[in-house]
From TrEMBL:
Name of the protein in its database record: F-box only protein 21
Annotated ranges, domain Hemimethylated DNA-binding: 206-310
SMART domains associated with the record: YccV-like (SM00992)
Top-level taxonomic group: Eukaryota
Organism: Cajanus cajan (Pigeon pea)
Coiled coil: 115-142
UniProt keyword Coiled coil present: yes
Cross-referenced InterPro entries: Clp_protease_adapter_ClpF, Hemimethylated_DNA-bd_dom, Hemimethylated_DNA-bd_sf, UVR_dom
Keywords attached to this entry: Coiled coil
Amino acid sequence: MVQGVSLSTLATCGKSRLCGSSPSWMAPFEPFKRSQITSATGKQLVWNHSVQRLFLIGYPYVSRHSGFKAEAAWMFRGGEQRSDASSEHSESANEDILMFFFQLDLATRVQYALNMEQYDIAQQLRNKLTEVEEEVIKQQQSKRGLSSKSEAQDKALSIIRLRSDLQNAVENEDYALAAELRDKISKLEAESLAASAKALAHENAQYAFRLGQKVKHKKFGYKAVICGMDPVCGESSSWMENAQVNKLSRGSTQPFYQVLVDVHAEPNLLVAYVPEENLVIPDKPDIGRFDHPYLSFLFYGMDSAGDFIPIKQLREKYNRPRHEIPIDPPNDEDGGKA
């Protein structure tokens, strides 16, 4: 799947070195601590330094086109954003994709170490992979509303206990405490309702687009490929304000998509987080050129309709079925001929 590019640059070896291609990865290995995975400092280590090497060294297109390196460098340095389309750039979406790459690479390394009978290294890698998978599962549960459902249930239990306390306060004529408990109950009821609504939205989500599908942005006109999806906007309030989500006709409760943007159309963007209402399918199949440094990691290649075929692990991540291209039925008139 990763022909021509090594994801090994996304792993970290002992003494804070970045691993290169084998055999240098067999150096003493220190599994990430959970704090390194979740903290801003840890993310900076994994995302910033590792990904710069991945694209500026490993990716052939970037290596051969020095101009592109300068255009794309803002993603790593926080440089100037010169296009209105940059309002939909999402660093969290980009990090989500990179975590997925990291997960794939670790799984490949574990198998490679086992094949080479490097069992100690395989165990260290497997431990690290387990830490990453736990973090990924936690993030996926949050996005899919499972944590919201659990949160709603916890709040419902808290409300039951508070109502019992409220009844006791009224019976004891402690009206000040009763008033305080009523305020707490009202607040919890509102929070529980919001959590339940979020969980329900995730469970009943319907997507207009599928993984690997080529789309076009209604407003900015660039071509893109779907590589991830959320049933509602999963970004921060500051991101939504910057992207003017409140001005969308369907608001933040519609599906949002992680898309890979054609580097020829928007070299400063790379990964965008776009609401469903801002995307359309091309009028006719587009089998033309589409370049992006993530393509070879997330897709097997292009199908006959011009869309990309997602790898199995990507489909499993979003629990999406395989897309089968319909075969045109034989012409009746031709079929009737001898």
